[in-house]
Amino acid sequence: MNAIEVNNLTKRFGDFTAVDNLDFEVENGEIFGFLGPNGAGKTTTARMLTGIIKPDSGLIKIKGIDIQRNPIKAKQIIGVVPELSNAYTDLSAWHNLQFMAQLYGIPKNKSTKRAEKLLMKFDLYEWKDHKVKTFSKGMKQKLILAMSLMNDPEILFLDEPTSGLDVRSSRLIKDMVLELNKEGKTIFLTTHYMEEANQLCNRIAVINHGNIAAIDAPEKLKMRIGGLKWVEIGFNIPVDPHDLHAMQGVVDVQKSGDKLRLYTDKPGRIVYQLVDYSRSSNLEILTLNTMTPTLEDIFIKLTEGE
Amino acid sequence: MTVAVILMVIDQLKRALAISKKDIMIYYLKGPVIIFGVLFPAFLFVAFMIGRDLPVDFLIAGLLGMTIFFTSTSITPVIAPTETQTRNLERLASSPVSITTILLGDILASVLFGIGISLVPILLGIALGVTITHPFTLAVAIILASFCFSAMGLIFSSTPTSMTSTVMMMSTMVKFPLVFISGVFIKLGDLPQWGRALASISPLTYITDLCRYSFHETNYYSVYVSISALIMFLIIFMISAVKLHEKSLPKRL
Fold this sequence. Notes:
The complex is a heterodimer. By secondary structure, chain A is of the alpha/beta class. Chain A folds into 2 domains: 4-223, Rossmann fold, CATH 3.40.50.300; 227-303, Alpha-Beta Plaits (2-Layer Sandwich). Chain A has helices at 42-49, 71-76, 93-103, 108-121, 137-148, 167-182, 194-200, 218-224, 241-245, 267-280, 295-303, and strands at residues 4-13, 16-26, 31-35, 57-62, 65-66, 78-81, 155-159, 186-190, 203-208, 211-216, 229-235, 250-256, 259-264, 285-291. Chain A is globular and about 75 Å long. By secondary structure, chain B is an all-alpha fold. Chain B has one domain (3-252). Chain B is built from 11 helices and no strands. In chain B, helix 4 (76-85) packs antiparallel against helix 8 and helix 10 (203-216) packs antiparallel against helix 11. The longest helix of chain B is centred in the C-terminal third of the chain and has 30 residues, at 223-252. The A-B interface holds A 47, 50-54, 71-73, 75-76, 78, 80, 82, 84-86, 88-91, 95, 99-100, 102-105, 147, 157 and B 8, 11-12, 14-15, 17-19, 21-22, 25-26, 86-88, 90-98, 249-250, 253.
């Protein structure tokens, strides 16, 4: 039995079809990334999967439980971290956690231990009696993640969990996600950050216009549009891109900040030519990298025409 | 009903209590809310009663009815729009509770608040020499009316908006006319035929009348009529609130 099974899932808002006949499954224990441009249907899909809104048609099974027929039972085994901070800011961290425990019907003695453990784990124990409105964004996000774990869920839905966080908080959340996955939790991750999806996800689905454009492991997705690679070079003084475009094997040249990016299917040959060019033009090479397509390139390729 | 269903209902009731506890901590246990709950009906009442020669038990019954009405409908309309704005509603909607459970939790908190604040006019009445002839009827009336008005407040909050001002405006537009047609300031028997007909469509009429019965047996309707009317209003308000919120929830998110 898969963690999540989705068949022919459709949701319309008036004449607009937000999610169009989606089919996919998430295996037990995997981190499944859900990527897509704004308005592609990511959040609508996540909300249907978590039972927040009802689909117009289609079937969603959470660990074999039909969430439309048995929403309480299905929601009991999932944890949700919505996109925006939504702990109760007038309550303390402790009361927020206890409220979650009560919503999930967790007995008092168990919920006390679990809340203490989670507060320790997220480095919030000293702040347990402080109202959430005094917390920084990073602390709030850690608390929200802790709240979603109060029921020890089998599946965790994370909607943009690191959005707007500083590097340190973001890394901490990502480490937590990996740790939770190691503990055996299945994770459904909606994110805009390609690098985050690349680092964390076993498989990624790219959704566009309510349809799944591609679904595969990150590296396999990169191979799909493989072929074209690029060499990135930075000189001590600006150079005319047309000079580099004339090199043999260069398909395109684009500016990338203070560097130039030369697209080619033979990066090795381009490197030799660049070294010769720098010698003949008396230029100093500050940086030189050969690169393969990133997940961002895949995303752009799959969702182009936006 | 099977055992599993009974257990599920008990389980959901416990979760509704958790929601009401949260509501009390966030929305009700605030000085301005409590002061407003007592002072507003008192000022309104004094403004209309000054200079009129009416018995004190008549006055206290009207004040009690109004206090329950204003306190029980004061916070329930703003919870949903506030939690829409703060994105707490999405958290609740994703947790294993039904919409009925969420609304029941909101109602329970409001009922406790309404009952608690209703003690103020009762104690004031006792201090002024009013005797409670039928305490049991009064208790039933206060509890029923608190449930009824709290459910009524939820109907206002079903508007899919995150603007509390919009909801409060709608709520005020309905609440104020009700006060003036419900026999709070004038005895129902003194109203013209059309006035009595208008009063009969307001739940506030029946709680005020029950209070008058409980203090001095100066009621217009029989106790059974008033209690049945409040139960009927409660059922209508509760069913309407659940249906309307089921429809509006997806639009809020």
